[in-house]
């Protein structure tokens, strides 16, 4: 038995200090002089007053579970979520990608719909102007794309810079790197997606057989270069990323930008508000890097998020505070009650249908004319 263990008063004091380790660490980090300044600074402040075996590990665990630090400090880890390239298309026009280029001069449409075949990089550029709806996009797709190439098996909508990289823009030196040929030759040198692959010797004419064999060779060459470029992009991108995964039932903090989220209460210094909110529980893993959270109904956010805006919660706080949201019944977020009238007006070179809308908690005299297409969205 050690000498200090024989002293009952000393043993009682040590036990009291051990039982209040969390309080001692909190005194070194929570007050204004501590300032939630991280693991190293808090450890030095505590070590100047107390010390016990494993002090640094205890301080690190305390800081990691601090709700204030988790909500207000940025995530110092590498970008969460590994790059997941799309599967290489089997044939031409079996998989296409779509994107919208907006903010152009208003001559014959301020928006361009960009449709690209992912295998051959053959592109169509369709002009359209606001306002437009999903039905308008579908009609234009049927009129300009479907009548020429038929129905594609997969359509990918580009969202974010990562999908833009994996789709590859149709221009510049990228054609030489990926295709080793021109888009026109790559597209029309291949059979229709519904055709079967050609087997050498099926044709009795040597010229036809050689031509079909050449086209099959070009198809395999396209797949090879496209797959190699995707793997190279994946390898280079994942060097600066971290693989972050969650399971159903885990609690995570959600990153929201108050100065961009219109359903949240405005603040004069919104950029200085908390970087993360909640935590919320993961209720479903939707994809490889997307998760569905259990959000309150009044938050008016889609519950599915990319892993890059989620941060693990190591200790669920006793009281969970949700982001301040606007009162939906307030004049800032009115609800439409009924349509009082309709009219057609000229906007530029187009005729637009407008509706006279009466809003909730407002009389008919305060009704406003709104574009019908905007209300559908």
Automatic annotation (TrEMBL):
GO terms for molecular function: nucleic acid binding. Gene3D superfamilies: 1.10.340.70, 2.40.50.40, Ribonuclease H-like superfamily/Ribonuclease H. Pfam families: Chromo, Integrase_H2C2, SH3_Tf2-1. InterPro entries: Chromo-like_dom_sf, Chromo_domain, Integrase_H2C2, RNaseH-like_sf, RNaseH_sf, SH3_Tf2-1. PANTHER family: PROTEIN NYNRIN-LIKE (PTHR45835:SF104), YALI0A06105P (PTHR45835). This is Uncharacterized protein.
